[in-house]
């Protein structure tokens, strides 16, 4: 069950299909307008890490966009575990997608009668590559700003990622692995897909809600871990100067997990190596992901549509 299967099974609107059969209607507003939401999750050793927290956020996003899902939270959780089981995966990245559904051309969502639900699971490594956990990544502070909080709602995990894609293109122009984006006021916001943390003078700092961030589930775990370590934590405005001159910088996210940033704007962060505090947080987070009490069992769940907690 640990290896990647040859023919990936994908859940599409109530049916399990092969990769070749899994298609989206060209009139789906998720395709036409990016009108939809998603969640990225991970499965570790046969347990989906914090599935309920991810599903709760998915439902909040759906409610905010007035998307009426045709399934309950328990049913969606069952579909997730069933998709993993059909692919015989123990460790996987999970992409859970909800689209507005099929409708006429035009941005009015009222013509879309039934939302779409897609679940993709793959045995994917850390988005930056498994080797980067040890050596860290480079980043560049890019010109593209994070959309202001009064322009889009960042707590919604929208399918529309154009803001991040533009920043990623700019990071590539600077030959950096990822981009650090500023908010409309010029303070640090987040990377293209991750939250930002800095360790400086014995304090852990991270941008807050006013900095146009999506408060990630991995971010919340890091905040809890830091408090368990009796570390002082501040959620506040952070200047680019503070970022560049920090003792350590790291990024957090489900797909990225926790990764150290060792160069910013082609300058080393401190000694240019992943720092001791970052490694301590990585280790503590790894213990959480390996602990069944934080997960939902994939194998041994009673039936599709019911979530069984270890």
UniProtKB/TrEMBL annotation:
Keywords: Amino-acid biosynthesis, Aminotransferase, Branched-chain amino acid biosynthesis, Pyridoxal phosphate, Transferase. Pathway: Amino-acid biosynthesis; L-isoleucine biosynthesis; L-isoleucine from 2-oxobutanoate: step 4/4; Amino-acid biosynthesis; L-leucine biosynthesis; L-leucine from 3-methyl-2-oxobutanoate: step 4/4; Amino-acid biosynthesis; L-valine biosynthesis; L-valine from pyruvate: step 4/4. One of its GO terms (biological process) is isoleucine biosynthetic process. Its cofactor is pyridoxal 5'-phosphate. It is an enzyme of class 2 (transferase). Its EC number is 2.6.1.42. InterPro entries: Aminotrans_IV, Aminotrans_IV_CS, Aminotransferase-like, B_amino_transI, BCAT-like_C, BCAT-like_N, Class-IV_PLP-Dep_Aminotrnsfr. It catalyses: L-leucine + 2-oxoglutarate = 4-methyl-2-oxopentanoate + L-glutamate; L-valine + 2-oxoglutarate = 3-methyl-2-oxobutanoate + L-glutamate; L-isoleucine + 2-oxoglutarate = (S)-3-methyl-2-oxopentanoate + L-glutamate. GO terms for molecular function: L-isoleucine-2-oxoglutarate transaminase activity; L-leucine-2-oxoglutarate transaminase activity; L-valine-2-oxoglutarate transaminase activity. Pfam families: Aminotran_4. PANTHER family: AMINO-ACID AMINOTRANSFERASE (PTHR42743), AMINODEOXYCHORISMATE LYASE (PTHR42743:SF11). Homodimer. Belongs to the class-IV pyridoxal-phosphate-dependent aminotransferase family. Acts on leucine, isoleucine and valine. This is Branched-chain-amino-acid aminotransferase.
């Amino acid at each position: 069950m640990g290896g990647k299967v040859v023919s990936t099974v994908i859940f599409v609107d109530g049916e399990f299909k092969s990769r070749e059969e899994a298609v989206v209607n060209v009139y789906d507003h998720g395709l036409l307008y990016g009108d939809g939401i998603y969640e990225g999750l991970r499965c570790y050793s046969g347990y989906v890490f914090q599935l309920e927290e991810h599903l709760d956020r998915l439902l909040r996003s759906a409610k905010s966009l007035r998307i009426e899902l045709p399934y309950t939270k328990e049913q969606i959780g069952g579909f997730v575990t069933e998709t993993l089981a059909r692919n015989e995966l123990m460790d996987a990245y999970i992409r859970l997608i909800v689209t507005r559904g099929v409708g006429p051309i035009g941005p009015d969502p009222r013509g879309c009668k039934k939302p779409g639900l897609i679940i993709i699971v793959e045995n994917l490594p850390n988005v930056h590559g498994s080797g980067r956990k040890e050596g860290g990544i480079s980043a560049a502070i890019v010109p593209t700003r994070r959309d202001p909080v009064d322009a889009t709602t960042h707590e919604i995990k929208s399918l529309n990622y154009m803001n991040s894609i533009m920043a990623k293109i700019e990071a590539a122009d600077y030959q950096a692995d990822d981009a650090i984006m500023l908010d409309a006021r010029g303070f640090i916001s987040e990377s293209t897909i991750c939250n930002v943390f800095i360790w400086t003078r014995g304090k852990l700092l991270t941008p807050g809600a006013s900095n146009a961030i999506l408060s990630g589930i991995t971010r919340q775990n890091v905040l809890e871990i830091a408090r368990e370590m009796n570390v002082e934590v501040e959620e506040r405005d952070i200047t680019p100067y503070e970022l560049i001159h920090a003792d350590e910088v790291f990024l957090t996210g489900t797909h990225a997990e926790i990764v150290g940033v060792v160069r910013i704007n082609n300058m080393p962060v401190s000694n240019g190596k992943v720092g001791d505090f970052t490694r301590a947080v990585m280790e503590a987070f790894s213990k959480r992901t390996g602990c069944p009490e934080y997960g939902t069992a994939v194998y041994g769940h009673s039936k599709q549509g019911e979530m069984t907690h270890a």
